[in-house]
Each structure stands twice: as structure tokens, then as C-alpha cells.
């Protein structure tokens, strides 16, 4: 733990996001971000596991989606460029040269 702060997990972050909206409605005169964070942290600590369960389920779903996306991304990175796409094999300058040469031929 660095600087006395603990790492906030996604369950707590989701909870704080919802709490922040409610807190700002109830306390429109409050402009201090730190006051909202302290109040949200205190509420999170006072919540029982049953109250935290919806946030845990949402966090697990988000984690699974993230891991699935990362596996697909990593697989794509290890496979390298696909050979079937001719356009991707051209460099940007070749694509622009092709476009420019067509225009020049039309003008003649």
C-alpha cells in the first residue's frame, strides 16, 4: 500500500459511481470531490456482502468480457497480418499514388 491508499476494485468503483450521482442530488451545494469520495468510501465499508453482491456480479461480467477481448486481441497479434487482403498489403503512398494517377489520366 503506497501513500496509505488501498487499490479500489471495480466493484467499489461501480458502487461509488452510483453513489456519486445520488450524493450530488442530495447535496447540490457541495463542490468538493474529496467529500464525495470519503462519503462513498464510508458507505462501501458499511455495506454487507449481500449489498455488495450486485456490484460483484457486474464486476465479474466485465472482467470476463475484458479477458475475452484480450484473448482475441493477443491471438490476432500473434497471427500477424492476413494474406488474403490485397489492399492491406499496399502502403499508404501506393494507395494514394493509385488514386492520383487515375485522376491525372481522366484529365488528359
UniProtKB/TrEMBL annotation:
Listed GO MF terms = chromatin binding; DNA binding; structural constituent of chromatin
Q: Name one Pfam family in it.
A: HMG_box
Cite the record's Basic and acidic residues compositional bias ranges: 1-29, 46-70
Q: Where is the composition biased (Low complexity)?
A: 31-45
User: Which cellular component appears as one GO term in the record?
Assistant: nucleus
Q: Which UniProt keywords apply?
A: DNA-binding, Nucleus
For this chain, the family text in UniProt reads:
Belongs to the HMGB family.
Quote the protein name from its UniProt record: HMG box domain-containing protein
What lineage does the source organism belong to? Eukaryota, Viridiplantae, Streptophyta, Embryophyta, Tracheophyta
